[in-house]
Design goal:
The protein is an alpha+beta fold. Helix content is about 40%, strand content about 25%. The protein contains 2 helices and 5 strands. The longest helix is centred in the first third of the chain and has 20 residues. The two termini are about 15 Å apart.
């Protein structure tokens, strides 16, 4: 459903903008396997085909099984240097 894809893309952009306002440069979206399958299904339904999704909103997409239904927008250069550099959100309720 188009609304679900728009909601997810809006959340990614919102979290990326929050990181930018904090002085970070987001470049990756980590997604749990369940979240990835949902996003992939939405993209393929919208655009047709059975393509893998490698990028969303200009950010690289990586699967991290442990996140499950969640996703995290990340500045990969800032991780490990203290607090900040990542914003987590729920893709599926």
């Amino acid at each position: 459903m188009r609304g679900d894809l728009i909601r997810v893309l809006s959340l990614i952009e919102e979290k990326a903008n929050e990181l930018k306002l904090d002085g970070y440069e987001p470049d990756v979206v980590l997604v749990g396997f369940e979240a990835y399958e949902f996003i992939k299904g939405q993209v393929n339904e919208e655009f047709g085909g059975e393509e893998e999704v490698l990028e969303l909103s200009g950010l690289k997409l990586r699967i991290l099984d442990e996140l499950g239904k969640d996703a995290v927008v990340v500045d990969s250069k800032a991780l490990g240097f203290g607090l900040g550099g990542a914003k987590r959100f729920r893709v599926l309720e």
